[in-house]
What we know:
The chain is mostly helical. The protein has helices at residues 7-35, 40-60, 64-79, 83-116. Helix 1 (7-35) runs antiparallel to helix 2 and helix 2 (40-60) packs antiparallel against helix 3 (64-79).
Amino acid sequence: MGSKLSGTELKKLEAVEEGRKKWNRVHSLVERAAAEPRGRDSYLRQCRRAAEEVGRLFSGSGFGTLADAANQVAQLIGRTRNFEQRAGVIRESVAAVHNAIDRAERAIHAEGQKESGGG
């Protein structure tokens, strides 16, 4: 991109990128839980811990809304007794957080362009 980001924006962008990598793991674990019923409980425990970790990362980086969304997914996974009935809701929730991460990244870049005088 042609704009330069401030130090604060760069730190936020790094947090968003790290959160995206970790959220990709959450997504992968949900899909594995859906595909492999035999190891489902293990995948879901790992998924919940990873979602909680992402929530802490975003909370500590000033992304309260993203932190809340990640924590809600972690709680949803923890409350799920019958995965087959809730798989669609969990998948939609995971996708919604992916979209929120994308929006946060675009907002950081837009703010950087605005501050640098770009259009």
